Amino acid sequence: METIRSANGFVFNTEVIATQFELIVDFLRSFTYYKTIHKSLQLKQLKTDEQFWVHSLNSFLNSAIIQWCKIFGTDSNEVHWKKAITKDHNNFQEVIRDMILKNTNFSIDEWKNYQNKMRNFRNTYSAHRHLSNLPPVPFLDKALLAKGVI
């Protein structure tokens, strides 16, 4: 495993960090395309086949949520933000969690609730499909703010 040491002494797994950056870029791309198409549909600026744009909108939404959840969703994921560091996990987790809460303006309970909403949407709509009780689409702007800590 190749590592790199930060100025504050944290030792990072470069493979995990590189993969997290790729996922963040994928999230940002999907988020941007989703927001652009959504706004254009609301303003009725798209003159071609609306079904194509609705399908594209849904695809970019699902992709954004799935990519975000890979880093911020489930702790056991190999590329979860907590897996970026090779040692001194507690201090690192505290520093990053504080940054997430500051960037999103969430309390710890609000953050956990938001994570649950994102995971629930991924689990019941984006990655799997339930026939009933579909969750509302999570507000993605907070997801955008959280990614800024990685």
Write the SSE topology.
Blueprint: E1 3-5, E2 11-13, H1 14-42, H2 50-72, H3 89-104, H4 108-126, H5 141-146
Antiparallel strand pairs: 1-2
Helix pairs in contact: 1-2, 2-4
How does this structure look, described?
- The chain has 150 residues and is mainly alpha-helical.
- It has one domain (3-149).
- The protein has helices at 14-42, 50-72, 89-104, 108-126, 141-146; strands spanning 3-5, 11-13.
- Strands 1-2 form a two-stranded antiparallel ribbon.
- Helix 1 (14-42) packs antiparallel against helix 2 (50-72).
- The longest helix has 29 residues, at 14-42.
- It is elongated.
Notable traits:
150 residues, mainly alpha, two-stranded antiparallel sheet, 5 helices, 2 strands
What's the pLDDT, averaged over the residues? 88
Report the biggest beta sheet as strand number plus sense, adding barrel if it closes.
Answer: 2 strands, antiparallel
Strand arrangement across the biggest beta sheet: 1-2
What is the count of β-strands? 2
Number of continuous helical runs: 5
**Fraction of helical residues:** 55-70%
Order of helices and strands: EEHHHHH
Q: State the separation between the terminal residues, measured CA to CA.
A: 20 Å
Strand % is: under 5%
Determine the oligomeric state from the structure. single chain
Number of domains: 1
Name the poorly predicted regions.
none
Apparent shape: elongated
CA gyration radius, whole angstroms? 17 Å
Pairing-aware structural class of the strands and helices? mainly alpha
